[in-house]
Amino acid sequence: MSLRLNTKYLSSFVSEKEMQQIKPQTELAAKILADRSGAGNDFLGWVDLPVDYDKDEFACIKAAAERIKKDSEVLIVIGIGGSYLGARAAIELMRSPLYNNLKKDTPEIYYVGNSISPAYLNEVISLVEGRDFSVNVISKSGTTTEPALAFRIFRSMLEKKYGKEGAKSRIYATTDKARGTLKELSDKEGYETFVIPDDVGGRFSVLTAVGLLPIAVAGCDIDKVMAGAAKAREELSAGFDDNDCYKYAALRNILYRKGKSTEILVSYDPSFAMMAEWFKQLYGESEGKDKKGLFPASCIFSTDLHSMGQYIQDGSRLMFETVVDIKKPKSDLFLEDDAANLDGLNFLTGQNMSVVNRRAFEGTVLAHTEGGVPNIVLELDDTAEESFGYMVYFFEKACAVSGYMLGINPFDQPGVESYKKNMFALLGKPGYEDQKAALEAKLGR
Ligand code: PA5
Question: 183 CA distance to ligand 1 centroid (A)?
Answer without folding.
Answer: 15
